[in-house]
């Protein structure tokens, strides 16, 4: 019971073996693991960040002094 469940998965074992054996695979996998979440985060920030001047003015008007 000391092993995690994913350690018994054939896909996990294949992934670990490939990252040990092949440096290009390792760097590709590491890049994908870093870039994909970065792209998703950037898209979420762009979708949720409003650039409406009226909304920004209203929020600044009602903001507390220490947040300005």
From TrEMBL:
Domain of life: Eukaryota
The entry's keywords: Membrane, Transmembrane, Transmembrane helix
Membrane-traversing stretches: 25-45
Xref: PANTHER family: OS02G0495900 PROTEIN
Name of the featured protein: Uncharacterized protein
Organism: Papaver atlanticum
